[in-house]
Amino acid sequence: MEINFLAFIGDWNFWVLMDIPNLPPHIRQQILGLVSKPPQQQQQQNNDSNNNKNNLINNEKVSDVAIDLTSNLNIENFKIFNKESLNQLEKKGYLIIDNFLNDKNKINLIYDESYNQFKENKLIEAGMNKGTEKWKDKSIRGDYIQWIHRDSNSRIQDKDLSSTIPNINYLLDRLDLIKNEFDNVIPNFNSIKTQTQLAVYLNGGRYIKHRDSFYSSESSTVSRRITMIYYVNKDWKKSDGGELRLYTNNTNNINQKESTTATKQDDEFIDIEPIADRLLIFLSPFLEHEVLQCNFEPRIAITTWIY
């Protein structure tokens, strides 16, 4: 006997006519499960799911492990930084270095190599994950990414990739010098590894507020401690958008932590313009940040994390 079933499906806002018995069993079970719920209940379930994804990004536990960058420094090993710059990084949580390479030809070549990787479909749409849950949503995160893996001798592991991005590799060598200086100047810093990602945003792309690390005393895995983002966006102007909004409540600074508790400064921020040859360094576990909507393309950033 043929049974036609007319139903309003949750919040989908349309009526459907279905031959229920002839549907595949797993489809039949899903549909009957949907129509058995009142629309309000289904809407609440969908809202909860969306809220959970946003909470996974925005409401992680803040690190309870301080990052000490200023005690008993081996100042004779300074080459890039000084005591004042490390003090700013520890207390404010971030540091900006303009004209990092100070080589216009290198900057142009890094831009070309990065954009060519995108145009040759070497990048993938970025996703998000928390625990075992993974998802993609361009309204939350809209960049395309490529991981660049280097071995212990600072060689790019993929030989084909290495041959096409020699100037990006030069940049990564320079970023390695920063990691080495942390190790040589800061007692017990003891970096474990680095990780590098090339990211390209197109017009309309953004990445909502998040942190780069879940570093804490309860962590069972090695976590990111320092984020270094190098920008290579030539001729960037204010109307292009794509700034990195950096929230400046740095709980690595005990004085600011006490002040924040009293005055609720959680949403204070600065907007970092992603101009070419700018290097932004900040404390991965402490500073929340977001990429504002881009009104141009490509927006190119190369990020190295120090663990």
Description:
The chain is an alpha+beta fold and 307 residues long. 30% of the residues lie in helices and 23% in strands. It has seven helices and 15 strands. The strands form four sheets. It has a seven-stranded antiparallel sheet with strand order 3-13-10-15-8-7-4. Strands 9-14-11-12 form a four-stranded antiparallel sheet, with no helix packed on it. A hairpin with a 2-residue loop joins β5 and β6. α4 crosses α6. The longest helix is centred in the N-terminal third of the chain and has 20 residues. The N and C termini lie far apart (65 Å). The N terminus is likely disordered.
How would you briefly describe this protein structure?
With 307 residues, this protein is α+β, with helices and mostly antiparallel strands. It has 7 helices and 15 strands.
